[in-house]
Design a protein that fits this description.
Layout: E1 2-17, H1 21-30, E2 33-48, E3 52-57, H2 63-70, E4 78-83, H3 92-95, E5 99-103, H4 115-125, H5 130-144, H6 159-170, E6 177-181, H7 189-206, E7 209-213, H8 217-223, E8 226-231, E9 234-240, H9 241-248, E10 251-258, H10 264-270, E11 277-280, E12 285-291, H11 297-305, E13 310-317, H12 320-330
Parallel strand pairs: 3-7, 3-8, 5-6, 6-7
Antiparallel strand pairs: 1-2, 1-4, 8-9, 10-12, 10-13, 11-12
C-alpha cells in the first residue's frame, strides 16, 4: 500500500518585485510587478507502508514546501497528490487524524500547562477512548522515558525533554504516517540516540511510515534505508542509501604515519604507477586518496611497507555528509 503518492507535484508562489527609488515605490502603489517562483517543480514521489525515508536538501531546495503540501497546509498549484489515500488539503479534517507531525522549531504542546494536560486535550481532539489512549500511550511514555515530565509545565522543560514530549504528542492517536522535520535539532547525543531507538521501535512494532527531513545526516544513516534528495524544487536522487555510497562514495583515504622523515617526492616516485594522490600532513604523516575500484588498500600498504618504516595506518571512507556535499557542489546526481 502506498502511504504517499505524488505525480507532477508543483507549487508556485507569486512574489512582489519592488522597483528602485522613490519613483519606483510610487509606481508600485498603483501598478505592482510580480514574478512567479516555483518552489517545487513537478516531483514524483511514492512512499510505501512501513518505509523510513530521508528527505534531504539544502535550504531553499523545497523540502518544507513539499512537507506542507503532504500534510495539507498548502494546496499544490498542480499535480496529483494522495496521502493515506486522501487529498490532504480537500479532506483535511478526516486526513489529519491519520498523520503525526513533529516540527523541530514549533510546538503542539500548550506552553503554560502540564504535559499530561496537553496530552489529555489532544486525546479529546482525536476522540480517543481511555482504553485506546492507555493501551498505546503507556508504551510510548515508557519507551521515551517521559513519565517524570508529565506533571511539569512545558515551559520548564529542556529542549531535549520537550522534543521527547512533542514526539509522544504526535503519536497519541497512533497514526500510520509520521512526518518529522528536524526532530533532533539542537539535541545532545544521548537524547538523539533515545529518539532514534524509539523511532525504530514504532516502525517495527506498528509499521509506522516515517518521512524524515533533516540536515543531520547521521539521523538519516541511523534510520533510513532510502534517501530522496531535492535541489531547486526537483528530485535529483531517489534511491537506497547504500547505493548512494556505492555510486558516489567510492573514495578512500589512508593515513600513514612513518617512523622517520619521509619526503613527498620520494613517496610519489615509489607509487608512480598507482592511481592515487598523496597529501602531506607533516614530515611523518601523509594521506593517500584514491578511488576504491582503482586500488586496494593492501596493494598500497605492501608497496609502502617494503620501503619505509611504518608506525601507524588508519583508513577512512568518505562520509555520507561529504558525498551529499559533493553532489550539490559538483552536480553528481541523477533522478
Amino acid at each position: 500500500m502506498l502511504r504517499i503518492e505524488a505525480k507532477g507535484l508543483t507549487k508556485e508562489f507569486k512574489t512582489h518585485r519592488s522597483r528602485t527609488g522613490l519613483s519606483g515605490a510610487f509606481r508600485d502603489l498603483f501598478n505592482r510587478e510580480y514574478k512567479t517562483m516555483r518552489a517545487v517543480d513537478h516531483i514524483d514521489l511514492k512512499v510505501r507502508e512501513g518505509e523510513m525515508v530521508g528527505y534531504i536538501g539544502e535550504n531553499g531546495a523545497g523540502k518544507s514546501t513539499t512537507i506542507k503540501m503532504l500534510t495539507g497546509i498548502l494546496m499544490p498549484t498542480s499535480g496529483y497528490l494522495r496521502v493515506n489515500g486522501m487529498d490532504p488539503h480537500r479532506e483535511r479534517e478526516k486526513f489529519v487524524k491519520t498523520i503525526g507531525v513533529v516540527f523541530g522549531q514549533r510546538s503542539q504542546l500548550w506552553w503554560d500547562i502540564a504535559v499530561q494536560e496537553s496530552f489529555t486535550l489532544l486525546k479529546k481532539v482525536y476522540r480517543l477512548s481511555d482504553e485506546q489512549y492507555n493501551k498505546h500511550m503507556n508504551h510510548v511514555i515508557d519507551v521515551l522515558d517521559i513519565g517524570d515530565l508529565l506533571t511539569r509545565p512545558v515551559r520548564k522543560l529542556s529542549l531535549g525533554q520537550r522534543m521527547r514530549c512533542e514526539l509522544a504528542a504526535a503519536l497519541i492517536h497512533n497514526p500510520p504516517l509520521l512526518f518529522l522535520d528536524e526532530p533532533t535539532i539542537g539535541l545532545d547525543v544521548l537524547v538523539k540516540l533515545k529518539i532514534r531507538d524509539f523511532l525504530k521501535e514504532i516502525n517495527q512494532e506498528y509499521g509506522t511510515t516515517i518521512l524524515l527531513t533533516t540536515h543531520d545526516l547521521s539521523d538519516i544513516e541511523a534510520l533510513c534505508s532510502r534517501v530522496v534528495m531535492l535541489d531547486e524544487g526537483k528530485i535529483i536522487y531517489d534511491g537506497g542509501l547504500t547505493n548512494l555510497r556505492t555510486t558516489w562514495g567510492n573514495q578512500k583515504t589512508v593515513y600513514v604515519e612513518f617512523g622517520s622523515t619521509v619526503y613527498l617526492e620520494d613517496l610519489q616516485a615509489a607509487t608512480a604507477d598507482l592511481s592515487l594522490v598523496w597529501h602531506k600532513e607533516n614530515d611523518l604523516r601523509y594521506r593517500a586518496v584514491f578511488a576504491e575500484e582503482a586500488l586496494s588498500v593492501s596493494d598500497l600498504l605492501s608497496r609502502i611497507i617494503a620501503r619505509y618504516e611504518v608506525k601507524d595506518v588508519s583508513i577512512e571512507a568518505i562520509s555520507t555528509e561529504e558525498i551529499v556535499r559533493k553532489i550539490y557542489e559538483e552536480g553528481f546526481a541523477y533522478a
